[in-house]
Amino acid sequence: MKKKILLLTGLLPVCLSAQVGINTQTPDISSVFDAVSSDKGILIPRVVLTSSTMDLDQVSGQPAGLMVFNSGGALAQGFYYWNGQEWRILTNATSVAPLIGDLLCTGATLNPASYQAGMAYSGVMKVSYTGGNGGFYSGGSTFTSHGLTFTLQEGQLENGSGDLLFIVQGTPDISTPEGITIPINGSSSPKLDINFWSGNCQIKVGDQANADIKTIATMNYMAFITDADTGAKGFSVQCNTPDGLYTLRVFLRHSNQTSAATASNNTESVASGSNNNVQIRNNSTVQKTLMWNYSTFYGGQITDAGGNLQVPSHIFGGGQGNTWTSNSTTAYAPWGNAGIYNGNNSGPEYRYYSWIDTSTSTKVAYIATIMAGIDPGATLTDATKQKVFIKIEQITSM
Questions:
Q1: Edge-to-edge strand order for the sheet containing 46-49?
Q2: What's the pLDDT at 17?
Q3: Does 23 share its domain with 143?
Q4: Which first-to-last residue range defines the signal peptide (predicted)?
Q5: Are 221 and 119 contained in the same domain?
Q6: Could you tell me the CA-to-CA distances from 311 to 243, 285, 386 in Å, in that order?
Q7: 237 Cβ partners below 8 Å, 6+ apart?
Q8: Which pLDDT score is estimated for 32?
Q9: pLDDT of the residue at 18
Q10: Residue 74: pLDDT band by 50, 70, 90 thresholds?
Q11: 93 vs 143, which has greater pLDDT?
């Protein structure tokens, strides 16, 4: 009986031990296993993974967190861990010290591009570089000026060209376009240190409000429609601005404005000097007042412009100067010169429109280029044979 008690007592410390130490009598209290060495590492089991869902022991249910080193097979060499569903590779990146060849300071961008004194700001500054070597770099380098703090974000350099990102936060005491200058490296103080670049420069942001450009286009043959706003029947190709605020179209009004109108019984010619027009629709719920400019090239040139064209809501139409005409079953309502297919030598016109509204709160401009054409040998009253190209650029202040 005494022997059994002594045996259990001898085993008790082993059963209660929660830590294992290699080359140490005092393993770290936060670890289960603590190996100490100044000249050796831990060798993780080496296996050959044949798929991203392979069971190592052919028994389902291997635990999440399992780690191996894949030495070959179907997957790339490297350390992998099992996440419960598949093997995931750990980042296999170079440990070389980070280095860039050049920092393109004059091309730095700030987004949002504008700030206002006394208003909290949160944004990102992006600075491009060349000659990156793929190394990882630490963040945290900061610079503060006029109430805004610029903080470098950690990351990995590209092998070649890439961008450094800086979080920008604070409440500025100035407003754009009064800019902020950020010294990079050099002898000035304070400055923002980039320790993986040997050069120095000055970045200036906020002195220019950059704009975002969105482009949309369509190219199609005219289709027979009934205008949803007015009931006017005709043929159309249309395109919305990227923000959906306006719609442009080329519209040939059908010769028959009754229910008898069809795609095949029109007698209006696409070469008409009054029909077959560019039109615009204001899709908002309020009237818009536009400043606009237009040119058409046909072998010669016709131009027009206006600074106070009042465009009503939810109806197609057009204007000459500052006079608006709404499309209807009886009005052709061209925007600019009537008849888009009147170029020299039976050719098409090429049209250019630009417009902005007169609001003091919006910063959006639009540019449209339009052309319509039909084979001169085709029947000119068959509007479905006319093809139309519309391209719209929307320029929005960032």
A1: 46-49, 67-73, 78-82, 87-89
A2: 54
A3: no
A4: 1-20
A5: no
A6: 17, 11, 28
A7: 218, 220, 221, 222, 223, 249, 250, 372, 387, 388, 390
A8: 87
A9: 66
A10: confident
A11: 143
* Pair (42, 181) in one structural domain: no
Residue 246 and residue 240: Cα distance in Å, rounded? 6
Mean pLDDT of the residues in the chain = 92
Q: Is the peptide bond before 63 cis (omega within 30 degrees of 0)?
A: no
List the beta bridge partners of residue 372.
Answer: 388
Angle at 325 between CA 324 and CA 330, to 5 degrees: 175
Question: Do both 364 and 331 map to the same domain?
Answer: yes
Give a yes or no: residue 203 inside a domain.
yes
Count of domains observed in the chain:
3
Residues 52, 27, single domain; the answer is yes
Tokens of 385: 């044979």
The domain containing residue 177 runs over which residues? Answer: 102-209
Give me the mean pLDDT over the 365-394 stretch. Answer: 96
Does 179 lie in the same domain as 167? yes
| pLDDT-derived band at 77, boundaries 50, 70, 90 | confident
Q: Is residue 337 part of a domain?
A: yes
Residue 69 confidence (pLDDT) above 60: yes
Cα–Cα distance for residue pair 135/95, rounded to 1 Å: 6
Give the model confidence (pLDDT) of 114-129 as tens digits. 899 999 999 999 999 9
- DSSP state for residue 384 in the 8-state scheme: G
Residue 81 lies in a domain: yes
Q: Which of 209, 224, 254 is the last residue of a domain?
A: 209
| Residue 186 confidence (pLDDT) | 86
CA distance 10 to 62: 34
* Pair (384, 241) in one structural domain: yes
Q: Is residue 10 part of a domain?
A: no
